[in-house]
Amino acid sequence: MWAYNETFYQIYPIGFCGAPVSNDGVTVPRIRKVAEWGSYLEQLGIGSVILNPIFESDNHGYDTRDFRTIDCRLGTNEDFEYVCRTLHSHNIKIILDGVFNHVGRGFWAFKDVQEKRWDSPYKDWFNINFDGNSCYNDGFWYEGWEGHYELVKLNLQNPAVVDYLLDCVRFWIEDFNIDGLRLDVAYCLDHNFMKTLRAFCDHTKPGFALIGEVLFGDYNRIVNDEMLHSCTNYECYKGIFSSLNSMNLFEIAHSLNRQYGPEQWCLYRGKHLMSFVDNHDVTRIASNLTNKEHLPLAYGLLFGMPGIPCIYYGSEWGEQGVKAPHNDYALRPCFEEPKPNTLTELLMKLIRIRRESDGLVNGSYHNVVLTNHQLVFERKSDKERVLVAINASSEPFEARNHELNGQFTELLTDAEISMNGSLELPPYSMQFLKMN
Hints:
The chain is an alpha/beta fold. It has helices at 13-16, 32-36, 38-44, 77-89, 108-116, 159-176, 191-204, 234-246, 250-260, 285-288, 295-304, 342-355, 358-362, and strands spanning 8-11, 48-51, 55-57, 64-70, 93-98, 102-104, 128-129, 141-142, 144-145, 148-153, 180-183, 209-212, 230-231, 274-276, 308-312, 364-370, 374-380, 385-391, 397-410, 415-425, 429-435.
């Protein structure tokens, strides 16, 4: 699967393009701004862009009105076709947000139910009780996603709903030539639906990637040969910033060993979960870290650990943003143009190093040295051995272990290092050491 080798870049288009928060009905080709960033993203080394909702919606995009029409606030279908052609010309693939669990109250089939009630041919597309009433006084009750009644839950056990959604995916592939889907709230989706979707996509466009949004639980339930290729690794997302803030690297080391380690009981060895340090739903990493010296180290962990790294737009130059109650738009700003800096340059190196390293993409995971403030772990494949060393302390540290032995190239600096059971770690440092 091509996705395993790439670094992803997530964009929330309504915010990124500076569109109004609520749908004003005015068509403006704002989505073309994504195409304008194509050269920058290619230079950064991005292999695929994840675009959060782009289809016609009531407000934030997850309240869809029409899966076949680009939101007028972003432009037209023709505008988005141009974006896809441009990104592909820069060797960047496109992943769309598949919001299949629910729709908005403005969704065309739900509006038909509001008008015709029992006589609507779409009444079984939703979980409806005509003996009740909704908080919007519709004259019937319906299931909303996790109690959010502006988000009407689809009945994914209805074959007509499944056929409709698959036809929309076919349309996206044929008209936009997309390369995969991020499945919103995949932990809520019917498993039979995901199996049907996987089989359909494998047949329609071989190599089509399916990545699910999952919070916690056993990721094996949906990441397997019948369902999804990958899912979001929220356990390690939390472990990265929490370990650095508490100066307790045992936390992230425990999670990584639990997921990928050499023990027989490890959970996800051989799988490629999507790893990240922030996204459109959580406080940005630059605001989440107590010590700003740890920001590069967080990305060192992200690119050194097993998984598919994903960068949230703007965070590659250290943009800040704090999640506010009932308002995520502080996390979804509009930038007129990229603002690269030294952090961006570091990420360019990390992206290149990972892409060129079979050990970092496919290698096993093994803790070599672990203290509260330091972590050295090994990534090893049949082709190469790489050591990733992190020192979160303001003091230098000498890591000692008999496995720290041999001739290595430090990949960030190209320095040649000879080790004989020990490794010097400067304050607030990271090293990527490939065995010669």
